[in-house]
Amino acid sequence: MGQLSKAMNASFNRRIYTFPAFRADVRQIFDHMDDLRRAARGGRVSKAFAEKIMLVVSSVNGCRYCCYGHSRAALAAGVSDVELQNLLALDLGTFPAHEVTALTFAQHYAEAACQSDPVAWQRVVTYYGEVTAQDILAYLRMITFGNLLGNTFDALLSRFASKPALGSSLWSELSVLLGVVWMPPSRLILRIFNRKQSSTNVN
Prior knowledge:
Blueprint: H1 2-8, H2 19-31, H3 33-42, H4 47-61, H5 64-76, H6 81-88, H7 97-111, H8 118-128, H9 130-160, H10 170-202
Helix pairs in contact: 2-9, 2-10, 3-9, 4-5, 4-7, 4-9, 7-8, 8-9, 9-10
């Protein structure tokens, strides 16, 4: 409750979803679901490394829910307390060379609202290879989705505390949060149906 009170005392200025952006990201998440599955199963990005990447994005976006949850997951995956504090503070220069490229790109990706510089992305591809780079991108997409949902919920709480987010509205925030109930399940059903149709056509 102390963190919530502190957040409500300041102007709400974190990135949140509009309904069109949320709808587009739900579509993107399901369109790239196989990428995330391959990333999780492939082992090219370790659990600890993935948590570090997601913590950087969460720190930039300011999602307190994701920072809390992924901090716990990072510690469980073997990330040290010192590393955790450095990630949350975006002090990335202390990390090993094989992690810095991905971590600094994660910071850039979040700060650029997912509109990353092609040169910065190419640096990731060159360093890690195309397949691992796509794994990293899958984690970036997933955590950004979670961050903006968490922030949208906090924007609604802030609105109830008479500190609404600029450029947002009660309807926009409610439509996003209510959309969580029906949009992902409907996309999943559509995905399953399309796969069955494709299988039937092949046979």
